[in-house]
Amino acid sequence: MTNSPAVSTETLAELRRRYALERERRVRPDGTRQYLAADAEFGCYAADPYTAETAEREPLRDTVDVAVVGGGFGGILAGARLRQQGVERIRVIDRGGDFGGTWYWNRYPGIHCDIEAHVYLPMLDETGYVPEWKYAPGEEIRRHAVRIAEKYDLYADALFSTSVTSLAWDETAQAWTVATDRGDRFLATYVITATGTMSELKLPGIPGIENFRGHTFHTSRWDYAYTGGTADGGLTGLADKSVGVVGTGATGVQVVPKLAEDAGHLYVFQRTPSTVDVRANRRTTAEDVGADRDGWARERRDNFLRITSGEAAGEDLVADRWTSSAGLLEKLLPSFCRQGDRTAFEAAYEVADATKMNEIRARVEQVVADADTAEKLKPWYRYACKRPTFSDTYLQAFNRDNVTLVDTADSHGIERMTERGVVVGGTEYELDCLIFATGFSVGVSGVHSGKLPVHGRGGVQLLHAWGRRGPRSLHGFTGNGFPNLIRLGAVQSASSVNYTHVLDEHAVHAAALVAAAEAKGAVIEPSREAEDAWLAVLAEDAPDHEWFHAECTPGYYNGEGRGRANGPIAYPHGAFAFHGLLKRWREESMDDVLRARTPTVR
Ligand code: NAP
């Protein structure tokens, strides 16, 4: 915890009162049910605007070594690490038209990654690439994803514009049958799922949303044919248009300044303001980051993870607002739960949090000229209640004559939509175009949601095998009854704000498992006892964050106000410790999950 100037007891009491009030104003009885999925009549919102034609092809009936479901950084890194282990036939399957995952879909104007590029972009040591900006634009990141895929020859067997519809273990073949929506039915000895955590866009369930006759789209499917321009701006198609944007999360904060530059008029419909901290993006050189040394990127990435996981790190190489606020992310990440005296720690935490939030609110006042608008842009909750954002142009956009902030907190968001526009507080705002920056559903994609059915040994469905008590695994990756299936992601493992780092460690682990199984002619399958032992580790030191989230304004972190952290149970000692644990396990115990390949009858 950083040293903070004293905040008086009265101030803390007043903040607690105000935070409770602001939460009450926003909690809705319909919680997560308030959102609409982009399917059925709203399916057009999910269409791929970046790959015009899906080329016809014959369905595949062949056999590969590994099928990787998902071509984002998780899938790409799994492919690259498998290639390093000498695996030959690797088939990555993605519903997008190319590699990139979130960076394939999200190309909205202003898109950047707010984690430093030199730690966020994976495999910089291996590719020799050195980012040009401290915080990279989305297109640079997407190109880097392609760069890795090319370097490790992942295009050769890849399937794009294709969704995997089921996975079924074939006992006789000792392999998985992979079925897709393009009629494919091929065999894969191993399957790695890397389906992401926020890949299903969501729309606000505004009454009358279907009535609007203007143009609409979601930020993750940007319609440049309509707006003109590129991710750098120049949206000339909006010059004479009245444009609305719904949502002021990390995406809204990045897109609003670009819309403000080019729209005839921009209405920003805000329900809860984000914390908007200093960005200070700048060009960087190889010299700045010491990129002339071998292993420089790994060292920098480890340093960032150490600090944001609450470990002692000595020097702070990245030195930005993530690392300086690391102590305040305690409620966001499970890694700080080792603090000894909880009461003293909570008290110090509250003071540090109040100091940070006062600084954030003071910045709004300094930047935004109109006092009423500034007041509405101030966030009233604790720092870790919502994902922090960073911008040096967002608050400034509200000083423009063509930008209007429409605060919807009193009406729980937009009241309704009409043919012409949206209604808030009884006032109709006429719009030519309405853009949804309303984010993504959490935990509804991939094998954990049942959207991708998985049938293991004896045809048993993964979700049935788990039952009501939820996921079972060893380290989050493998499970009994589901041989050679490796699930990448944050469920029952450990996460970090620098998610690509986590994915890379998981990819290294997955590739090592495959290599070990190949070397021994075995299948990968932990025993139920190994799963039970891992579940006990997760439960033993599980931090109690429930009270914290119960006091937060609603959002996807707390299941829209339910009061529970919306994340799955994670390794309680943080990502840095988890990676160390995996490494030791690979060195000492990996053979425990290798079983004879002979078909088993149960
Ligand atoms: P988000 O954080 O879920 O934000 C959705 C926004 O829509 C919120 O401001 C929400 O308001 C608003 N909203 C929803 N329904 C509404 C309604 N009926 N009326 C008015 N407003 C409504 O989504 P996001 O901004 O797309 O970000 C998603 C995640 O993507 C981030 O948390 C982050 O993990 C990632 N991301 C990362 C970066 C990066 O630089 N690394 C950049 C962008 C996004 P409430 O807050 O009131 O619910």
Automatic annotation (TrEMBL):
Domain of life of the native organism: Bacteria
InterPro entries listed in its UniProt record: FAD-binding_Monooxygenases, FAD/NAD-bd_sf, Flavin_mOase-like
One Pfam family, short name: NAD_binding_8
Essential cofactor(s): FAD
Keywords: FAD, Flavoprotein, Monooxygenase, NADP, Oxidoreductase
GO molecular function, one term: flavin adenine dinucleotide binding
Family: Belongs to the FAD-binding monooxygenase family.
Protein name: Monooxygenase
